[in-house]
TrEMBL record, chain A:
<dbReference type="InterPro" id="IPR051789">
    <property type="entry name" value="Bact_Polyamine_Transport"/>
</dbReference>
<keyword id="KW-0813">Transport</keyword>
<keyword id="KW-1133">Transmembrane helix</keyword>
<keyword id="KW-0472">Membrane</keyword>
<feature type="transmembrane region" description="Helical">
    <location>
        <begin position="190"/>
        <end position="214"/>
    </location>
</feature>
<comment type="similarity">
    <text>Belongs to the binding-protein-dependent transport system permease family. CysTW subfamily.</text>
</comment>
<feature type="transmembrane region" description="Helical">
    <location>
        <begin position="100"/>
        <end position="120"/>
    </location>
</feature>
TrEMBL record, chains B, E:
<dbReference type="InterPro" id="IPR003439">
    <property type="entry name" value="ABC_transporter-like_ATP-bd"/>
</dbReference>
<dbReference type="Pfam" id="PF00005">
    <property type="entry name" value="ABC_tran"/>
</dbReference>
<dbReference type="GO" id="GO:0005524">
    <property type="term" value="F:ATP binding"/>
</dbReference>
<keyword id="KW-0813">Transport</keyword>
<dbReference type="Pfam" id="PF08402">
    <property type="entry name" value="TOBE_2"/>
</dbReference>
<keyword id="KW-0547">Nucleotide-binding</keyword>
<dbReference type="InterPro" id="IPR017871">
    <property type="entry name" value="ABC_transporter-like_CS"/>
</dbReference>
From TrEMBL, chain C:
<keyword id="KW-0472">Membrane</keyword>
<dbReference type="InterPro" id="IPR000515">
    <property type="entry name" value="MetI-like"/>
</dbReference>
<keyword id="KW-0813">Transport</keyword>
<feature type="transmembrane region" description="Helical">
    <location>
        <begin position="125"/>
        <end position="145"/>
    </location>
</feature>
<dbReference type="Pfam" id="PF00528">
    <property type="entry name" value="BPD_transp_1"/>
</dbReference>
<feature type="transmembrane region" description="Helical">
    <location>
        <begin position="93"/>
        <end position="113"/>
    </location>
</feature>
<feature type="transmembrane region" description="Helical">
    <location>
        <begin position="270"/>
        <end position="290"/>
    </location>
</feature>
């Protein structure tokens, strides 16, 4: 639509203002990471690089990041497999209970985290009798990450149709070969977008994690939460947040490039 | 036309989608090396027949034989037929060469050999320079030729083409028609060609099956269909026709039943034409439409029928008359085709019926 | 055809036989596709959820914290009749609705600008700008807002010259912070929804005399409604269960999440917590049921 | 105290008789800051020496509230827990922790006597753990708002409305005891003898007081950061606090001070306890001994910001004074957190007291 | 053809997209009530001109006048032109009736009146029964008619149609062509019609502009363009032509320069035809293609040129010869059109130049 110039400018200004406001708290975090105040008070009483130095030496922070990455990678991988399978089933087949299944996929994200958390906690500990560990976190995270992959993949499948796969079969490729050479490459950017979101979701999850993490499993959000209860650590958390934001731009950018402008972003 | 061993034999082929019967008891034999077209309006089941032959759909009933072998239950990748899809279905993530080599690759043919053969196939459609491009960097006509090369490089016994020219614009389509026919002759492969463009079907085909409502309405050579349409439907669908219903036939032709006359068989002139077997009727010109290569003249006959005549735009017909002119429309008795009663029509029988009347 | 290259069919291996079997047996294919994910979702999630709900009908020995598995309606009755739960439910619902409304209002212009005004390059930049805040940890952002909203914070500093004041810690602060946290989750589906609206429809509206506002109201809005609802599922559900943000900036207020958390984490009363958990479950199911018709669930 | 200990399982009722081989690992459940191995701050580390000494690898899980600890102990995944008084008795009652044989813990000797054999760490004279550190919940105030130091809790109760919206309180059901301490002094008619032993009527009075207080509360707090921020910015000017928070605020040059009001106060004395299902009992005993050793105890309590458990530990700390370590007088003004149970802790037998569950729901009511 | 006050006047209209000049200094006047077509290959700028007129794009240079009023800077909703989009752009969430009533609704016309007028518009396209359906429940041809009703109900002075029939299949397209022409006549609205189908353009239009590379190559009535193509491009694009280059023209026609002859102007016969102004050349039949209404005969002239002749399928031409037959191809001198040198062509001038030569 060719909006009138004033309309375009107004929209642009509104967008700029909202995004500006979105970045104010992040700016506060950035400033805090250089603040001499351990309590994140505003305005910062002085500037120091101490926290940046400490953050990079903090084995605990590094461990927590690694744990989070590990959890996020594994649960994203599981979500990718399960989400893709469901998308194929729901998009390519018409069967009784289809709607129920699509609701089922959405449920773990639609129900509040604390409910998922206590349900799984109760399930693992009292029902199954398995001790909480990193794997229980992974299982929990994978469960609510399925939906992001599912949504991306099913949208792609819906748009793409079965033509290319038929062409491949027609040219003599079996089911597996077709998947490897044709279907998968076509889904790649959708999987990437879905996987990225799943990763982000898992990486920053705290509520479900609180209830499903075993002893010694400290994901980054848990580490941060603990640090809120620990004196003199808060600015390190700011440093970590700043680093994460900066680092995150790379995968988002790559995903953007790969999926193209007209593509599904979710 | 049928051989002792037809390339394709469909027997009682039926496909139902829920309540819709897309293909309804189709029996058909297509000879090896034939250029066979399926023509029909949208939704008449042409694509479905093609997909059944290719194996993308499972028939509800009936069998499909390929050179005498029953392949009804075979997976698509186990059938010696290949398809050129309407939207080409080129793999967007592969280069043109990789696309063409795909069928060889999945057959486990080594990189060297398959590249060589894919190059040869590309050369046969005059795209040897384009091997490294992505399909998105090609024009419509070029894509069409890549699809053709990809389907033919594995040397199928039968090539299925589903409106392969439908997405091209007119000029390009005409050009590709010529190329298609050329390739079919060169390779000697059986082509089964789906189109809803009757001119395309007439120009290219050895034989044509006209589909309607999932059934074959008439089957025959282009001239059979055009000159001797077996039903009102075929007369209307293949080319245009002037239809005379029972009453008008009585009045103008002097015999009962339904009849059809092609526009180009009607001559429009200021004076009544006479001659052996020539009949004529007076009328008034309603519209004169300039077509470039010809002129279409619409005349309201005094007998109460609107007919269309087609005159070639050459020296002989420089004056075709103007709106409102009084004219005589004349035709040769032999050009009047008697139509069998309209539906219910049974595939196959009709053509014979029509022929016997003409 | 002259060459001797006539292609034999690819070799028949077990794999190809399997392939052929799958191709001709769609139901088997479906079963194979569904087996793993359904097993996972049902066994891990649905069973856990069902057991939790069953727990709501049990009780707990208050001193030892041992659960007594005898059927009782006490918890349910308490939750349904207790004025505390009614108050907190209403407050939580109010917060969730306010957050959702604010997010939609904020997301619409941004999403529209991204999808329909910005150049492709700008579009890419904007998507990155919208996604980036997701990576600064939730807690860090919540504490940042605590800092911004403080008596001494940036907001006060910005507003004071205009005679405004920071709302301080409380429900408004909670609503602001939650809106902030979930905004990207609302923008993205709306943006995707707008991208799917063909430009030609907007042009057609302008062509027929529709000015900007009628076009938005009569054409754009109805078309992206499912996408908007998809976005609201996120902001609504996430707000409904939150207990951390309200703790950080909510002043003295508590929400349903806090009650659940206190009962399970502090009071060690899982049965009561389960009973309270029923409230958001019922609300969410109600919401999903309401929006199911709109096709929103395909737009998440 | 006299506790029924009804839930205790027979097998672990007996303390360990003698030590055996170290298992090579131990799993600890602790307050944040109690077990630091240098991963958060390389200069804060008292776990590494322990590991080197005993060969027991340490894994740690931290908890935010006593109740969380209680829950986590039920899993049986942890060998040792640092329990505050509001959790310890419940742990004993649930049979989740075992009695300890103090003979096997050489450093038990040096611990302040007033910390030993208390209601929150022993049952019928049988010790269930080793005291770790203790502290008082103090009254913190903004020195601008209160030029003269308040001497009474009334600034957060009866006079709270003077600073409406800027008062804070600890966010836990156990805070009801603070109100009870105040009522003990100001409403003697209620007959409260022990703030953790309230009958229905007494609880109701405390709840009323707290409900009134709530109207003036700006926010409740449960973590350091929130409290420090609030006092630095002036969002909060008066409320309960901990000595360590005051120390941090001094570092921030905030205008705050703490005082122990005349009514006395509540406080905590934490106890290291061993799980009745401990998989690594020998390493657990080693940890209990180690963390009671002066150097380790000093490091841990100093980092957390509380008084250590022995005089010897003070030799490794310079700030013992600030925490009134070993000051028995000071310590006697503190009502250490213990778990309210139906059987009144103050010895009354004619009434049943309100238990922790009642306190929890009362607390939720108060917050509304 | 132009009036004192043209419906549309484009002056120096130019549109650049980055480096691409989509429309290049187009000057054009379209008279009120005219059925005007823009014909040209893909990418020649037809759509862009239409979008400039509708106001969806802003020109880089030049002005657009509507009945003498400069509307160059006006928003689309402030212009009295309406568009029928190629993909129809029907609002999927509204019923057919609501779609048609939309333009009235945004003009603030009350529900009663707009429903009434929308119903009338639907009736004019014979869809009165379909008002309650959603667009997705209609067939392609029906959607096309809804789009038409929606655009005409607000009584625009000019209607822009961007390949409105492109998505329809052949039979339906032919039918819709007739209806379109009918509606245009009935309403008396100026139609600006974009197509790449030359037959469609010839059949329907009062005048045609042939576009290439953002410029008008030739402008004129269908007969002007067809009979007197001004350039090789137009000769090839509008209909098919036999092109004689300079050397062949010398040999066969006895004069220099480039010439074109339409296939239907060529006669093929076994004996040499003689007559006033008739020339002929001997050759061999290469191919005979049956078209239904006609027969296409491809002949290799002995002079070294392949020509195509078109013969109508009527009594007079029953025998057209077979492949390999020796024949004579004859034509009338007056049917040979001299072509101006190919590009660079300047719009407008060429038609005149061509006319003067012929
Ligand atoms: N997968 C399907 N599910 C349900 N109905 C189908 C399916 N495929 C085709 N049909 C129906 O079967 C009938 C025949 O369709 P088919 O695609 O074979 O027609 P067609 O002759 O190829 O038409 P077109 O010229 O439009 O391509 C139609 O009524 C169509 O709606
Ligand atoms: N929005 C745009 N941005 C950049 N280039 C454009 C844009 N729109 C059109 N073009 C370019 O302008 C030229 C003319 O395009 P236009 O769509 O007007 O052609 P057309 O004659 O309508 O072609 P078609 O028959 O394919 O519809 C083309 O080269 C096209 O690539
Ligand atoms: Mg089809
Ligand atoms: Mg166009």
């Amino acid at each position: 639509m060719r909006l009138s110039r004033p309309a375009r400018v107004t929209l642009g200004v509104i967008t700029a203002i909202i995004l500006g406001v979105v970045y104010v708290p992040l700016l506060v975090v950035l400033v805090n990471s250089f603040s001499t105040s351990t309590a994140l008070t505003w305005p910062p009483p002085g500037f120091t690089l101490e926290w940046w130095g400490k953050a990079f030496q903090s084995a605990g922070a590094l461990d927590a990041v690694l744990t989070s990455v590990q959890v996020a990678v594994i649960s994203t991988a599981i979500a990718l497999v399960l989400g893709t399978l469901i998308s194929f089933a729901l998009q390519r087949f018409d069967f009784f209970g289809r709607e129920a299944i699509s609701l089922l996929v959405i449920l773990p994200i639609a129900l509040p985290g604390i409910i998922t958390g206590i349900a799984l906690n109760n399930f693992f500990r009292t029902i199954m009798g398995v001790p909480l560990s990193i794997w229980t976190v992974v299982i929990a995270h994978a469960t609510f990450c399925i939906v992001t992959v599912f949504n991306n993949v099913i949208a792609r499948l819906r748009r793409q149709g079965t033509n290319l796969e038929e062409a491949s079969a027609d040219l003599g490729a079996g089911v597996w070969t077709t998947f490897r050479l044709v279907t998968f490459p076509q889904l790649r950017s959708a999987l990437l977008a879905g996987g990225l979101l799943a990763f982000a979701l898992s990486f920053d999850e705290i509520i479900v994690t609180t209830f499903t993490a075993g002893s010694g499993v400290t994901t980054l959000p848990i580490f941060i939460l603990n640090n809120m209860f620990r004196p003199n650590q808060a600015p390190i958390v700011s440093v970590i947040a700043v680093v994460l934001v900066l680092v995150s731009i790379i995968p988002i950018y790559i995903a953007q490039r790969l999926s193209g402008p007209a593509d599904q972003k979710r | 036309m049928t051989d002792s061993q037809p390339a394709i034999r469909l027997t009682g082929l039926t496909k139902e989608f829920g309540a819709v019967t897309a293909v309804d008891h189709v029996d058909l034999e297509i000879a090896a090396g034939e250029f066979f077209s399926m023509l029909g309006p949208s939704g008449s089941g042409k694509t479905t027949v093609l997909r059944l032959i290719a194996g993308f759909e499972q028939p509800t009933a009936g069998t499909i034989e390929l050179f005498g072998e029953d392949v009804t239950r075979r997976a698509p990748f186990d059938r010696d037929v290949n398809t050129v899809f309407q939207d080409y279905a080129l793999f967007p993530h592969m280069s043109v060469l990789e696309n063409v080599a795909y069928g060889l690759r999945v057959r486990g043919i080594g990189r060297r050999e398959r590249t060589q053969r894919a190059r040869a196939a590309l050369a046969s459609v005059r795209l040897e320079q384009m091997g490294d491009r992505k399909p998105s960097q090609l024009s419509g006509g070029q894509r069409q030729r890549v699809a053709l090369a990809r389907a033919t490089v594995v040397q199928p016994k039968v090539l299925l083409l589903d409106e392969p020219l439908g997405a091209l614009d007119l000029k390009l389509r005409e050009q590709m028609q010529v190329e298609l026919k050329q390739i079919q002759r060169d390779l000697g492969i059986t082509f089964i060609f789906v189109t809803h463009d009757q001119e395309e079907a007439l120009t290219l085909s050895d034989r044509i099956a006209v589909f309607n409502d999932g059934r074959i309405q008439q089957l025959g050579t282009p001239a059979d269909l055009y000159e001797q349409p077996g039903s009102r439907f075929v007369a209307g669908f293949v080319g245009t026709s002037n239809l005379f219903d029972d009453a008008r036939s009585q009045a103008l032709l002097g015999r009962g039943g339904e009849h059809s006359v092609r526009p180009e068989k009607l001559a429009v002139s200021a004076e009544r034409e006479v001659g052996d077997g020539v009949a004529s009727a007076p009328g008034t010109v309603v519209e004169v439409i300039y077509l470039g290569s010809g002129i279409r003249i619409v005349v309201d006959l005094d007998a109460g029928l609107r007919v269309t005549a087609l005159a070639q735009n050459d020296r002989r017909r420089l004056r075709a008359g103007d709106r409102g002119d009084r004219v005589f429309v004349s035709w040769h008795e032999a050009d009047v085709v008697a139509l069998a009663p309209a539906p219910p029509a049974v595939a196959g029988e009709e053509a014979d019926a029509a022929a016997s009347v003409a | 055809m002259s060459q001797a290259l006539v292609e034999s069919r690819p070799r028949r291996t077990a794999m190809r036989a399997g392939s052929a079997f799958l191709t001709t047996h769609p139901r088997t294919r479906l079963a194979l596709l569904l087996a793993a994910p359904l097993f996972w979702l049902v066994v891990v999630y649905i069973v856990a959820l069902a057991l939790l709900l069953v727990t709501a009908f049990w009780s707990v020995d208050s001193f030892t914290g041992v659960i007594t598995t005898e059927f009782t309606l006490d918890n349910i009755i308490e939750v349904v009749t207790g004025s505390l739960y009614q108050t907190v439910t209403l407050r939580t619902l109010g917060v969730a609705l306010a957050v959702t409304l604010i997010d939609v209002v904020l997301a619409l212009p941004i999403a529209f600008y991204m999808a329909k005004v910005a150049s492709p390059r700008m579009q890419r930049v904007l998507v990155i700008l919208v996604l980036t805040p997701l990576w600064a940890s939730y807690l860090v952002k919540a504490y940042a807002w605590r800092s911004v909203l403080s008596q001494d914070g940036i907001l006060e500093w910005l507003l004071a010259p205009f005679g405004g004041h920071t709302p301080g810690y409380g429900l408004p602060a909670t609503i602001i912070t939650l809106s902030y946290l979930w905004l990207p989750y609302v923008i993205l589906p709306i943006y995707a929804g707008l991208e799917r609206v063909p430009d030609s429809l907007l042009e057609a509206s302008g062509d027929l005399g529709g000015k900007t506002w009628p076009t938005l109201r009569l054409v754009v809005f109805p078309l992206i409604l499912p996408a908007i609802i998809a976005g609201t599922i996120f902001s609504f559900a996430l707000s409904l269960g939150d207990y951390i943000t309200v703790n950080i900036v909510g002043g003295t207020n508590q929400m349903l999440g806090n009650l659940v958390y206190t009962n399970v984490g502090a009071a060690n009363n899982l049965p009561l917590a389960s009973a309270i958990a029923l409230i958001p479950i019922v609300i969410i199911f109600g919401y999903l049921f309401l929006v199911r018709r709109t096709g929103a669930l395909d737009n998440l | 105290g006299t506790s029924s200990g009804s839930g205790a399982s027979g097998a672990s009722d007996e303390p360990m008789a003698e030590l055996g081989e170290m298992e090579g690992q131990v799993s600890l459940l602790a307050w944040p800051g109690y077990v630091e191995d240098g991963t958060n701050d390389p200069s804060v580390d008292w776990v590494t020496p322990f590991v080197e000494e005993t060969g027991c690898k340490v894994t740690t899980k931290t908890f935010g509230t006593s109740d969380e600890a209680l829950n986590l102990m039920k899993t049986g995944d942890y060998d040792v827990v640092s329990a505050s008084g509001d959790a310890s008795l419940r742990l004993v009652a649930a049979g989740d922790v075992a009695p300890v044989n103090t003979d096997l813990i050489p450093n038990y000797e040096g611990i302040y006597p007033f910390l030993k054999d208390q209601a929150w760490n022993s049952v019928d004279g049988v010790p269930y753990g080793v005291p770790h550190g203790y502290g008082a919940n103090l009254l913190m105030y903004n020195t601008d708002e209160f030029p003269t130091a308040p001497t009474s809790w009334d600034v957060v109760f009866d006079k709270a409305s003077e600073h409406a919206g800027k008062v804070t309180a600890y966010d836990s059901p156990i805070y009801i005891a603070d109100a009870a301490v105040y009522l003990m002094a100001h409403e003697p008619d209620l007959g409260i003898e022990n703030p953790y032993s309230l009958d229905e009527e007494q609880l109701a009075a405390a709840v009323d007081l707290l409900k009134t207080q709530r109207e003036s509360i700006g926010e409740y707090w449960s973590d350091y950061l929130k409290e420090v921020q609030a006092f630095t910015t002036g969002d909060t000017v008066v409320g309960t606090s901990w000595q360590v928070i005051q120390n941090v605020l001094e570092g921030e040059a905030a205008k705050t001070a703490v005082v122990l009001p005349e009514e006395g106060t509540t406080g905590w004395s934490d106890t290291w306890m061993i799980s009745s299902k401990a998989k690594n009992p020998n390493c657990a005993y080693a940890w209990l001994d180690y963390i009671a050793s002066p150097e380790a105890n000093a490091a841990a309590t100093s980092y957390f910001g509380e008084a250590p458990s022995s005089d010897a530990a003070c030799e490794y700390r310079e700030d013992c004074e600030a925490y009134h370590a070993g000051d028995e007088d000071y310590a006697s003004q503190i009502w250490y957190w213990s778990t309210p149970i139906e059987e009144c802790l103050d010895g009354r037998t004619d009434v049943t007291c309100t238990d922790y569950a009642a306190w929890t729901s009362a607390w939720q009511e108060i917050k509304g």
